[in-house]
Amino acid sequence: MIRSARELGVATVAVYSQADVASRPVREADEAVCIGPAASAQSYLNQTAIIMAALTTGAEAIHPGYGFLAENADFAALCADEGLVFIGPSPDAIARMGNKNVARQTATDAGVPTVPGSDGALESAEEALMVAEKIGYPVLVKASAGGGGKGMRLAEESDLLPHQFVAAKTEAKAAFGDDTVYLEKYLGRPKHIEIQILVDRDGRGVYLFERDCSVQRRHQKLIEEAPSSVLTPQLREEMGQAALRLAATVGYEGAGTVEFLYDDSGSVPRFYFMEMNTRVQVEHPVSEQITGVDIIAAQIRIAAGQPLGITQDDLRLTSHAIEFRINAEDPAAGFRPSPGIATKFVPPGGFGIRVDTHLETGASVPPYYDSLIAKLIVSGRTRFETIARARRALAEFEVEGLATTIDFHRSVLEVPAFVAGDYRTDFIEEEMPELG
Ligand code: ADP
């Protein structure tokens, strides 16, 4: 974010917690303001402290990043009340997409297919049983406020549903303070395919094609690639248009992602709306690499009221990109977080390699936040070339002092199903069961 802003000639102020005082973004921003102690509730989620930091430094706008308050409609409204530009969609658009249940209804209204399921929230286990009977098992109980794979419970048959209904509610209440749940048919072996969009204030929009995020562990993405091996040009266009239609329905502005499940178990492949993320996502660089569009810069320009400046016809699919999430986690120990000091951190380089990271040798990974420490994005003219380059890059990547997912990614690149592009959301369970 700091880099894109600098290229646009926009000065930056980083906000940080005491745990991040020595971090690179704090050094690299033009100014930096400490907003509280390590605990995120008192710093990165402290709306007043962040607004104060903006007002006292004379900032005009706030970029919310992709965690913490990035999808918080109240925070977006607070920014507006204080005369600050929130770099993102309106509070209303965030709220309408933030509740998955409401978002499903909005998608239906926009003529975008959704996974068969309940019409709205479920009041009781009895109601869940009735809906499940209608749509057929297996079913998934999902939290309306869900995110990060939390509050999602699978019921293979009716015996299990009442228990899973309560379990999902309890988990949702604990994680999001909201125990509203709904039901969806559980698709057997789908792909997670999402469409990146950009829409300017006048409603002109483009889709930056898709990302295939099907390599997941327990619903958490680990590898994302663009384009997907399975989409035909026609389906790609249909999904892109569906995403833009949905955005138009809520008056969306800025960068956003519409997530779909792709199901080719039937005679014709189908896609279903799953949710919309009203912010930039961790995996946005793969779309930047294949389109040449700086999504962060586009967000800033759109928030400043500038026109998009590109049309769909300007965008051509001529290359490939894969992102590997390098997490401070130990795959051999159930991907347990591995915070500590990186005694050595030497990322790969060379042609087609991009590494987005805040880490450096001697820096510490605090235990308080997400364990993502770097994103390795590899590009090539073809998928084949990209995979060969990724093997080379992962072999070069040196991290000491922390357990990481680097070796895990090396192993994935040796699995024939991945190399063939034929992988689904059950990839890890199926192909690497020892890590599931
Ligand atoms: P979250 O917001 O918690 O990440 P999502 O709704 O985006 O939850 O779903 C995360 C993942 O869960 C998807 O990428 C997919 O792997 C799986 N999933 C969600 N809904 C379904 C479904 N109806 N059938 C099969 N898998 C699903």
Q: What labels would you give this structure?
A:
436 residues, alpha+beta, Dna Ligase, domain 1, D-amino Acid Aminotransferase, Chain A, domain 1, 3-stranded antiparallel sheet, 15 helices, 26% strand, globular, binds adenosine-5'-diphosphate
- The rounded distance between the terminal residues' Cα atoms is 34 Å
The total count of helices amounts to 15
The computed structural class is: alpha+beta
By CATH, the superfamily of the largest domain comes out as ATP-grasp fold, B domain
- In the CATH hierarchy, the third-tier topology of the largest domain is known as D-amino Acid Aminotransferase, Chain A, domain 1
Q: Let me know the average pLDDT.
A: 96
Give the biggest sheet: 8 strands, antiparallel
Helix content: 25-40%
Please give the number of β-strands.
21
Bound molecules: adenosine-5'-diphosphate
Rg measurement, Å: 21 Å
The strand line-up of the biggest sheet is 12-11-8-9-10-13-20-18
Please identify, by name, the CATH architecture of the largest domain.
Answer: 2-Layer Sandwich
Stretches with pLDDT under 50, minimum 5 residues: none
User: How big a fraction of the residues is strand?
Assistant: 25-35%
- Reading off the top of the CATH hierarchy, the class of the largest domain is best stated as Alpha Beta
Overall shape: it is: globular
